[in-house]
Design a protein that fits this description.
Elements: E1 9-15, E2 48-52, E3 67-69, E4 89-93, E5 97-101, E6 107-111, E7 117-121, E8 152-159, E9 165-169, H1 175-182, E10 200-205, E11 211-216, E12 243-249, H2 255-269, E13 277-283, H3 290-297, E14 306-308, H4 317-334, H5 343-353, H6 355-359
Subunit structure: Monomer.
Cofactor: Mg(2+)
Binding site for GTP: 169-176, 194-198, 216-219, 283-286, 310-312
Length: 369
């Protein structure tokens, strides 16, 4: 995907519709001068809804859509006619999109499945018509409930790509080359640092027609947490990965030291990343003979599985796939379901539980329809 088309952060203002007011209409017809109240309820205000779409990979289509406004509910009318609901606005977003409150940073929704819909900003409920307030002692109420107001909230939509394996390494470690070899992805490859400027995804074919997704992010360097290089902007895209593949070139002066630097930068970004499964790949192994491999292997950390690979000669590529596949399956057994958040789902449940309190709210004569 082109770097100028990859947008993983947008800020939008979401304004839901207000609920329609209830009607205080009185029934009148020939022969029934005292027909009584027959005011209908107001319609619900429109929602702002997020919907997962697996065909999208970026938030580019929302980059210049700063204000999203849903329709208002229509007031009720006589004859117990309920007003029409306001038009909902559905925002299609890529899988892995998180919605946060722009002021507090609180997570409001998270989209992880195709077709999944979450109400980001709920519309106001419609008011009750005067028919609901009639009783033996109040047979002709002349008032009705007003509709609930809509909500206006600034939200941040942030995309975190969903992948099974995330590639972590210094620039020119061979990450993009590996992705191009094991998948049909065509990332930019060159002999200078920071060739990769945006994340790239590839589907890696495995045995028996199975597959997994691999994500390549721009290389990080020592001091990235302080803003050096491209900083840690794109590390959020590996927060959801089941396994992290650390890639260090065989011609590195100190492979163990580079590995520790990468771990340190990840820890500064998010300490939880260190809890993920890890695999260490020594790239450009076609430059090594057996004696050099044995010498390097003696210096590698013992607690991380490792493999010497070469994307050019295909050395140990299948062995690497087998190792990654096993790590992915183990991670899925530990955590079979992706994390989801939706505080609005809980809010609507709380609203429903308190519906009687809203319905029985005392309405004064000052709130006439």
């Amino acid at each position: 995907m082109a770097s100028n088309n990859f947008i993983d952060y947008v800020k939008i203002c979401c304004r839901s519709g207000r609920g329609g007011a209830g009607s205080a209409h009185m029934f009148r017809s020939k022969g029934r001068p005292l027909g009584g109240p027959d005011g209908g309820d107001g319609g619900r205000g429109g929602h702002i809804i997020l919907r997962g779409n697996k065909q999208l990979w970026t938030l580019l289509h929302l980059q210049y859509k700063k204000h999203v406004i849903a329709g208002h509910g229509v007031p009720g009318s006589g004859g117990l006619c309920t007003g029409a609901e306001g038009d909902d606005v559905i925002l299609d977003v890529p899988l892995g999109t998180i919605a946060r409150d722009a002021e507090t940073g609180e997570i409001r929704a998270e989209i992880t499945e195709d077709g999944q819909e979450i109400i980001l900003t709920p519309g106001g409920r419609g008011g009750w018509g005067n028919d609901h307030f009639k009783s033996a002692t109040n047979q002709a109420p002349t008032y009705a409930q007003p509709g609930e107001p809509g909500q206006e909230v600034w939200n941040v939509l942030e995309l975190k790509l969903l992948a099974d394996v995330g590639l972590v390494g210094f620039p020119n470690a061979g990450k993009s080359t590996l992705l191009s070899v094991v998948s049909a992805a065509t990332p930019k490859i060159a002999d200078y640092a920071f060739t990769t400027l945006v994340p790239n995804l590839g589907v890696v074919g495995y045995r028996d027609y199975q597959s997994f997704v691999m994500a390549d992010i721009p290389g990080i360097i020592e001091g990235a947490a302080e803003g050096k290089g491209l900083g840690l902007r794109f590390l959020k895209h590996i927060e959801r990965n089941a396994t992290l593949l650390f890639m260090i070139a065989a011609d590195s002066p100190d492979i163990a030291a580079e590995y520790q630097v990468l771990l340190s930068e990840l820890e500064q970004f998010n300490p939880d990343l260190l809890d993920k499964r890890r695999v260490l790949a020594i790239t450009k192994a076609d430059m090594l003979d057996e004696e050099l491999e044995a010498e390097i292997e003696a210096t590698l950390p013992a607690d991380v599985p490792h493999v010497f690979i070469s994307s050019i000669t295909q050395k140990n590529i299948q062995q690497l796939k087998d190792l990654l596949w096993q790590q992915i399956q183990d991670a899925r057994r530990e955590d079979p379901k992706p994390l989801r958040h939706s505080i609005w789902a809980q809010k609507r449940a709380d609203d429903d539980a308190d519906e009687d309190e809203f319905d029985d709210e005392e309405v004064s004569e000052d709130q006439l329809d």
